[in-house]
């Protein structure tokens, strides 16, 4: 039995498609709208109910869990805490100041103390990772490569911005860095009538990130947003991204003379 800790985004749905009717599983549904309530194996639980979450996992003999999707930072004052929630919550609140991924990392540590092991989020879906190479007809030119190099350099230097998994670069200048609002908000800031098909989005994991969780995710929506922002390409890291709707994204990129490169 595997415990699936599901948050927002379409990634959890891809996992469910892969393992349904093949593996025994249960879902701890942490989404705001309880997206998995129709699944008979789903449990709608508050983030503050650690006792309940651990009890569900242990009763069902789940010794392994998998995290997928974004778990948004909750309003801690509104959480309904059980006893274990009261015990663990100060650690969660402290880690939340470092970003959403830090919350998940703290939950992983809590599970470890309870002898529940966390496995990679792509354990069942390795095909959602991508290997080094260019995936489109268009390849980056010299100017694009300069932007790519600048973006990677910038992300590698962002120790204190540990919630940043992306940056936009145009003409060797940083146009935006991903903040707590995520990629969509960053790309909206980069819309410009001056530029069309110019600049890159670099999406890399955070430095020293736990690669079992919270890998930077892109999908068709990301490409629409990049097109609206006037960008020419998207840069990913070898086997360290979640790439949803890959065929549709590549087709969209080719039609719009954009490139996808994995470094």
Structure characterization notes:
- There is one protein chain.
- By secondary structure, the protein is of the alpha/beta class.
- It has 2 domains: 2-119, Rossmann fold (3-Layer(aba) Sandwich); 129-262, 3-Layer(aba) Sandwich (Cytidine Deaminase, domain 2).
- It contains 8 helices and 13 strands.
- Strands 6-13-11-9-7-8 form a 6-stranded mixed β-sheet, with helices on both faces. A 5-stranded parallel β-sheet has the order 3-2-1-4-5, with helices on both faces. It has a two-stranded parallel ribbon with strand order 10-12.
- α3 (83-96) packs antiparallel against α4 and α6 packs parallel to α7.
- The mean pLDDT is 89.
Concise synopsis of the structure shown:
The protein is an alpha/beta fold. The protein has eight helices and 13 strands. The protein is 34% helix and 19% strand.
Layout of secondary structure:
Layout: E1 2-6, H1 11-19, E2 25-29, E3 42-44, H2 50-59, E4 64-68, H3 83-96, H4 100-113, E5 117-119, E6 133-134, H5 142-156, E7 166-170, E8 173-177, H6 182-189, E9 200-203, E10 217-218, H7 220-228, E11 233-236, E12 242-243, H8 246-255, E13 259-262
Helix pairs in contact: 3-4, 6-7
